[in-house]
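U., I forgot to send this yesterday:
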Amino acid sequence: MRFTLLMNLALRRWILRIYNLVAPVVSKTGITKMRIKGSTLGSMIYLLFTKILYYKIPDPIENKGIIMFHRIPEGQKQFGWLYAFEYEPETSLVFEQIVKPGMTVVDVGANIGYYTLLAAKLVGNEGKVYAFEPNPSFYWLLQKNIRINALDKIVEAFQVAIGNTESKSILFIGKCITTSLFKVLDSAEQAISVNVISLDKFFMNRGWPSVDVIKVDAEGADKIVLEGIRVLVKRCPELKLIIELDPSYLEAAGTSAEELLILLGELGFNRIRALSGEIEYYNIPSDTQYLINLGWERGYINLLCER
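Result:
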């Protein structure tokens, strides 16, 4: 069964590579800009290609030696095919470079567990991973994926949202992948009550273990996650942070990309690398506007933040 799974995914990955090689060449001819019934030929070909590529994609899938179940029982649109291919390749590569054996890693917005499971493989039996995912459907799959990969002795998963205080809040669940403490873009299909805790409070309750890497993907709530790590940051001077910068989600949440970057600077994270083809580090506050513009241009970017 595992061989069949690997061959199935390998074939799809080769098809994707071929498409990525051919598409830019064809695009230069200009033929893809032809319009048919209001849509460009290029967009129609891409839509057809993705439907073929993702048709009857297996469940579970495999990526980087990790087995992942991805089908949600009901409600939200299926999105698990994202993890079957090269998911956030540059962020994944940097994540693999900075997470070392024996480290403690925190995954805020764990979803179904891609970065959680990758972290657990990297830190090994001497390390620890704390995963936080408030969405019930995602959390169910997260637990299932932890068990199927036999990583339950390394990973502790919690069905709570991370914020800047300990409280109850409303979690907005969208029709696709979006889950947020704020009503951002498509995240308005369902609303449920969830427990919220700050990372400062969580780790204070556990006696302040050292933390090495935090990954944050909170769909607009990223700033309030940072507001809740002020003490933890002081106690862990070597802490590295990977955080999503999505200007549209931040604005929908009542804040801004500028405010998020300013807060990163206040916390001492002044060396920022945009994980979107950029190799140099940028500084806060001098390069703040460049990073904001890059976020708007790309839709979102992940940032590696160091001190």
